Amino acid sequence: MKKIIVPIDFSEQSEYALKVAASLAKKHGSEILALHMLELNQAIISSSEGFHPEQTVFLLKLAEKRFNEFLAKPYLKGVAVTPIIKHFKVFSEVNEVADKHGADMIIMGSHGSDGLKEIFVGSNAEKVVRNANIPVLVIKEELEDFKIDRFVFASDFKEESLKAFHRAKDFAEMLSAEMELVYINVPGDDFLSNKDAYKRINQFLSQGNIGKQVEIYNDYSVEKGILNYSESISADIIGIPTHGRRGLSHFFMGSIGEDIANHSKIPVVTFKI
């Protein structure tokens, strides 16, 4: 892992993410790309009425000063940190920065989101997960030492998730974590008998040349199943594939990966299908 992007908005949650990134960077010799997105719109920057260009420059310089002060943390000593400032808060830009710099992972803090706010606005983490092509690690709480022992990877074990699985496997090996595979069986149209579930799972394991066992866990919804199973085995982190659906598809169908990232109390890492 050579480069890690950490979106910074000066919140406690973004500092939690920065600390985790620093911990990983020290262990793996990675560079941190600290990304701050200003909320200046084009009208403010270009308007000629009642707003002077020097005022825009002043605001930009002020943001840069605050950004540099935020990055002057003792735990970043000895870590290569490159500050990047974008003038607009457009979440697809995080993925563009990742592509441009060849980043391997995005680590970001989140306080989650609930209710109508989640439906119509969503958390920043959810928006980044939806747009990112590389793994996104979501941190909710401060972790003094980011050490992962038990890593739950939940999947529907369809062929399209093979690529995400192998990315998750590489991630687990990088952290020297024990990888636990789980299939969540729910009532309704998606319910599978044990026989049919294992048929799908064994086909997946065979295609991916995967020598691991899979736990079948029954619950009322996939999200509850993943969270409850992870809690039952005292998992340190949850890994999950995500389609990154957008627009009306996202509104009506949603994404389990985004929901888990929003609601899980322990760290979640998503892998794009």
UniProtKB/TrEMBL annotation:
Q: Where is the UspA domain?
A: 1-140, 149-271
User: Mind telling me which InterPro entries this protein's record contains?
Assistant: Rossmann-like_a/b/a_fold, Universal_stress_UspA, UspA
Q: Which Pfam families match?
A: Usp
The family assignment reads:
Belongs to the universal stress protein A family.
Return the protein name: Universal stress protein
What's the source species for this entry? Pelagihabitans pacificus
